[in-house]
Amino acid sequence: MRHQHSGFTLIELMIVVAIVSILASIAMPLYMGFVAKAKWKSSFSELSAGKISIDALRVIGDSPRLEDIHVPARSIHCANALSFDALGVGTYECEIIGGPSMVDTGTITLTRSIDGDWSCSTTVEQRFAGEASQCTGR
Question: What are the residues whose beta carbons fall under 8 Å from the beta carbon of 58, sequence distance 6 or more?
Answer without folding.
Answer: 64, 88, 112, 116
